[in-house]
Design a protein that fits this description.
- α19 (about 450-465) links the parallel β18 and β19 (about 470).
- It contains 21 helices and 22 strands.
- The strands form 4 sheets. Strands 11-12-10-13-14-9-15 form a 7-stranded parallel β-sheet, with helices on both faces. A 7-stranded parallel β-sheet has the order 18-19-17-20-21-16-22, with helices on both faces. Strands 1-2-4-3 form a 4-stranded antiparallel β-sheet.
- Helix content is about 35%, strand content about 20%.
């Protein structure tokens, strides 16, 4: 391979890829990388990608071959591809499918492409206990209930299983998409939404996997379209009460299903209907620390044909454990980012399924499907008295003093004046700070303690435009549909959480008539630990290509 100066890609021996955005071949190269690499940083001129085991296994699961990946690298590389890269790609992708799970009557069968591999696995304690009697020299019997646990164990050893055991069909439900939107206007599935549904339902192992789309890009619509296409009884799991109500509204507005077809399984009401919506919190609730979670039975007590995991990146560990036993049901994960602060992306792959579809945020912005976002960090100094307290405080105390910096109030006041004609969300982590700000500026405040009835009423007033500014605690990190919001002011955050940054930015990305510009401000106390946390949080924004401007004050 020769030097090709017109090409935009630099392939490095450590599996990182540098992609120049000003090249005429940039878009073609980016689209090729989407299928087998992960975007790490996405600033203006040079994007950084990384080839990982998980990204290659996701590619293999979607039908991309090692030859396809290597050919793409060689086609767009400016310099010769390092010799170790093709070898590593072939070895890693070659592991996907070496082990297959197949149906064997009431049992399952784990089949290996090599008898020695199976012998090797039988000597590993974490796997051996999950394997049953031999079926020849290259296959063993597996109980259906251990299907997920086995896939987890094998993935941790570097052997992703190709699960071809199929799924149990749920009770049929007749439903169609209705083309009349809630406001009376027409609508239709966008091209990328259709592509996401097709990707989820394509291939020999169709019926499990994750769709990654930005907040505001219509992940709920993708879920509804997949549900309608399958035409089976469906369980939808959400991050909270507000998301449950949003799903119910969307189902009734965009399908021919009637209210009696759509149930809510919550602390308030326990309805099991053809389409049932519940929350992760309810599933994991326990009466006391010595008791089991009584509502896990919801996962098994009905003949679900599909389980939709909304905001799958938030999946609690106990739900992971139960999902390991739920492998006979089709599973669709929806998320804006597969980043998990606990590093359990591998469990999402093993238990929910591979990533089936991903769409870069900036690509949808360029197409006009989500708003253009301007991200600004405003650094706010401490007062002399607070600086003295900060210096003498413990590490935990310093974090709190920086987050609660009283001077942030004056900065927020100026931002409220600057955006007097727009609807604004004030987002924070510390309740005493949010209570202080809500009293100072006369803001409605929603926290985890706000009763659901009151939440619904306040959200309704904000959606209608009656409220211009709304303050939210960490409940604002989850799936809340507030399409009129075009400004977010983050007054405090959770350490260095990229996941939280993604969710909070997503609250303001719905395009608005006449306003396709969103403004995302983060108030950070200068020269403190909070500034370091902010730099970590910004990683998500830079990964998605959002320029992040830093100012010393408003």
């Amino acid at each position: 391979m020769r030097y090709q100066p017109e090409n935009p890609l630099v392939v490095q021996g450590d599996h990182t890829l540098l992609l120049e955005t000003q090249s005429p071949r940039y878009a073609l190269a980016r689209d090729a990388l989407l299928s087998f690499a992960e975007l790490v940083k996405n600033p203006e001129y040079v994007h950084t990608w990384r080839i990982t085991k998980l990204s290659l296994w996701n590619a293999a699961a979607s039908g991309t071959s090692a030859d396809d990946v290597i050919a793409a690298l060689e086609d767009y590389a400016r310099y010769p591809v390092p010799e170790n890269i093709p070898v590593s790609i072939r070895e890693t992708m070659g592991r996907y499918g070496r082990l297959k799970l197949l149906r064997d009557g009431e049992w399952l069968q784990l089949e290996a492409d090599d008898a020695l591999l199976l012998l090797e696995l039988r000597k590993i304690a974490s796997v051996a206990d999950l394997l049953g009697p031999a079926r020849g020299d290259r296959a063993v019997q597996v109980t259906a209930r251990q299907r997920g646990e086995l896939k987890q164990a094998l993935l941790s050893l570097g052997y992703p299983v190709q699960d071809l055991a199929g799924y149990d069909d749920g009770e049929p439900v007749e439903m169609t998409l209705e083309r009349g939107a809630p406001d009376g206007g027409g609508w239709q599935l966008r091209d990328y939404q259709l592509a996401a549904v097709d990707a989820f339902l394509a291939g020999p192992d169709a019926g499990s996997g994750v769709v990654v789309l930005p907040c505001g890009a219509g992940k709920t619509i993708v879920g509804l379209a997949a549900m309608v296409k399958l035409g089976m009884r469906t369980l939808i799991l959400c991050a909270g009460h507000t998301a449950v109500q949003q799903w119910k509204r969307e189902i009734l507005a965009r399908t021919n299903l009637q209210p009696e077809d759509v149930g809510e399984y919550s602390g308030r009401v326990k309805e099991l209907r053809p389409i049932t919506v519940s929350t992760y919190q309810l599933l994991t609730w326990r009466p006391d620390k010595h008791s089991g979670a009584p509502h896990f039975k919801l996962l098994y007590q009905a003949a679900w044909g599909l389980v939709i995991y909304d905001e799958v990146h938030l999946l609690p560990a106990p739900v992971f454990r139960e999902t390991a036993y739920l492998q006979a049901r089709r599973r669709l994960g929806l998320t804006a980012t597969l980043v998990r602060e606990d590093g359990r992306e591998g469990d999402v792959f093993a238990l929910i399924g591979p990533k089936r579809f991903d769409m870069p945020w900036k690509e949808l912005e360029h197409q006009g499907w989500i708003a253009t976002a301007r991200c600004v960090e405003l650094r706010v100094p401490l007062s002399d008295a607070d600086r003295l307290g900060y210096v003498n405080a413990s590490a935990q105390g310093r974090t709190r003093i920086a987050a609660l910096n009283a001077r942030k109030g004056a900065v927020l006041e100026k931002l409220l004046e600057r955006h007097a004609d727009e609807q604004i969300l004030v987002l924070g982590t510390y309740l005493d700070q949010l209570n202080w700000l809500s009293k100072r500026f006369g803001l409605e405040l929603i926290t985890g303690k706000t009763p659901n009835r009151v939440r619904d009423e306040i959200f309704g007033r904000f959606r209608s435009g009656e409220l211009r500014v709304l303050a939210l605690s960490r409940v604002g990190n989850f799936a809340i549909d507030l399409p009129a919001a075009s400004v977010a002011v983050q007054v405090s955050g959770t350490f260095g959480s990229r996941q939280e940054e993604a969710q909070r930015l997503g609250r303001i990305l719905r395009p608005k008539p006449g306003i396709n510009q969103a403004s995302f401000y983060t108030l950070v106390t200068a020269d403190t630990k909070e500034q370091e946390f902010a730099e970590r949080r910004q990683l998500f924004l830079s990964e998605q290509g959002y320029p992040y401007r830093i100012e010393l004050s408003v």
